[in-house]
Each structure stands twice: as C-alpha cells, then as structure tokens.
Design goal:
Helix content: under 10%
Distance between the termini: 11 Å
Structural class: mainly beta
Shape: globular
Number of strands: 21
Strand content: over 45%
Number of helices: 1
Length: about 400
Amino acid sequence: MKKFILGSVISCAFFGASQLEALEVTVDPYGYLGALYNQGIESSPHSYIGLTARAGANFLLDNNWSLGLGAIGAWSVFNNDTIPGSNKPYDNTGDISDAFVKYNTDKLKFALGRYNTDFAEFDWIAGNIQGASIKIHDRGMNYWGIYMDSMLYNGYQYSGQQGNRIATELNSLVAYNSGGKKNKYVGGEVIAAGVDYTYKAFRISPFVLIDTQLPTTTKGVLVQVGAKAGYATSIGSGFYSTTLLRGMFQYGDTDGVAGDDISGLIWIDEAIKYKMFNFGAGFYAVIGADKKGSLYTFSDRTRFYGRGINSPGVPAIYFANDTITGYVFGGLEVNRVRLDAMVAFGNYQEYSLVADYKLWQHKNMKFNAGAGYVYAYSSKAPASIGNSSLIFFGKFSY
C-alpha cells in the first residue's frame, strides 16, 4: 500500500487563495498473472493452456469511502479445439472487472458499480457483480441486500471454511456483457435480501432471491426462498466443529421446457478442524426439478471442484435435477502448503485432489504453483469441458 496527501488549493485573482482540508488517500494495488494447463484423461481428451491476468487499484480515503478500478483478461495460448483461433474455454478475452465506489464501516457497508460482493456473505452470489450491495450490522444482526444486473464469471468459488477453490479463477472468463448479449447468466434483474442472526454458537440466515427473467428459451421469473442454520463449537482436545443445514425452495423454468417448475434443496454439512487439518462429510438432495432443470445458483459454497475445473458456468453441474449425493472431504493448510481432497458419490460423483504451494514471497508479492486431478460426473447433466482433468498451474500475485 502507498499513502499520499491530496491537497486542494483554490486560488482566485480577485479574492486571493484558500486551501481546503487535506485528504489522505491510501492506494492499494492488486493483481495477478496466472497460467493453467488442463489435460483431459479420457477418450477424445481435451487439452489447453490458459493465461489470465488481472490488475487494479483501490483508492481508500480516510473518511471510510473508497474508489476502485481494475481490468481482467484471459487468453487460450493453446487448445485442441478444431475451430481456428478458438479461445476456449474462455468465452471472452477481457473486461473492466472493477469500477466502483464503496463505503465501509463496522456498522454499514455499501458498494455500487462493478465490485466484489463477498462482504454481503450470501451463499449464492459471490465474486464480482455489476449492481449495488448493502450490509448493516446492528448488535447480533446483519441485514443485507444485493441488486445485480450482470456478473463477471471467472470460475471463482468462495468457500469460507476450506478457502476458495484452488486455481479455479484461472480456468474461465465470461464478461459482464458476454458477446454483446446482456447478462448471459443473469438474464434479468436480480434482487436478493436476507438477515443473519447470531446468538452464541448459533447462526441462522434466511433469504429471498428474485430474478425477473431467466436466460432460458422460455424465460420467466426465478424465485428462491431459503435459509441456512449453523452451529459452531469446540468439542475438546483442539477439535472445532461446524454444522450447517441449508434448505431452499425454488420456482423457475430452469430447463427452458414448459412443465413443473418447482424444486428444492436439502443440504447438511459437518466440518471438523484440528490444528492444520480439516475433514468432514455431507449430504444433499435437489428434488422436483423438471426435465433437465437445475437449482439455479450464480455461486455456491460447496467443496466441489467440478464447477470450477470441468464444467465452469451457471448453473452448477452438481445441482442438476433429482440429484442425490453424499460426500467426504479432507484437507490441510500450513504456511506454504494447502491441500484439498474430496470423494462424492451418488448422482453426482467427484474425485478431486488439488494442491497449492507457495514457492516465493516478498512483502505482498508471491508466486504459487500447484497441481491436481479432478474427476466430475453427473448422471443428470454433462460436463462442458470433460469428466476428467489433470491440471498444473502457476500464479504470480501482488
């Protein structure tokens, strides 16, 4: 970060000069340059090398306001697509990722423009969106709201407990207005609102989400109503337990075929942390979706890699209709190393092992590299890239 003083001096030939109060500005630059090699291990395997870059800066004023501007780009250096000049798997080569104004205090957070909305802490919308978000904190209550008319999709998946899915932000790019078509994934205008109530070790978070027009052939409104309940506690001898129960009711024609449009989600997840280790298990069911419909989620906090590596986009491959799946997971995180492992079984199957290693760091600059294997298969929905991927990646960030 760099700080400088912005002094404003106003002078006039007839009335002399006056100096306004100095304003301190902290400049916080950020960015990364990353490369990812994705090699399929199956019949007619896919293979590509992708290069992604992002750069921007936040200008933090000393009155709790901030401004931000940033850009993102992605290029397929090599792929085995038969179409000459193909940029797959990236839909777009670049966009203005950030252009926002924010207000940030302990009690009130507000953002407008193109910005990261993770501060709202909503399970089903994360990463960079175009719109406005607000969060109000009052004692044990958080009140939040999000308006979104477009989103930047780059594979980013936010997961609070294990951390963001490793390297997924290097594997995709869909601009806010992709290919000249407004809102490829969003469709209409999205409004979401909810409350987070915390009491001791308990937390409950009900919400409602409305999309005025799904980006499907039959279009129509999407309505979701749901809640998350959590209980976090120490269970002795250094073990820490977090239990989460999620439920959702959805109305929307997500498959573009007229018919039954009502579906739901039941999901329970148990995670245990012991020093640098984490492990646990979960179960979920998507019930009642019509034909090839899905639970339509713009983002999620699952522990899966299938959406980020083998089938980027919206909706997620693992939330297809009539999916019933159980899973076990484990991982570790120390100063330089992070490892995620997952086995899922049922209508959605995943076997993933992804590792990240910090090779070098100097102040706020660092270089990470890693590798992994992801097998993701759904009996209800095909993967867009392939079922099986071996990946290698490197990322310089600051």
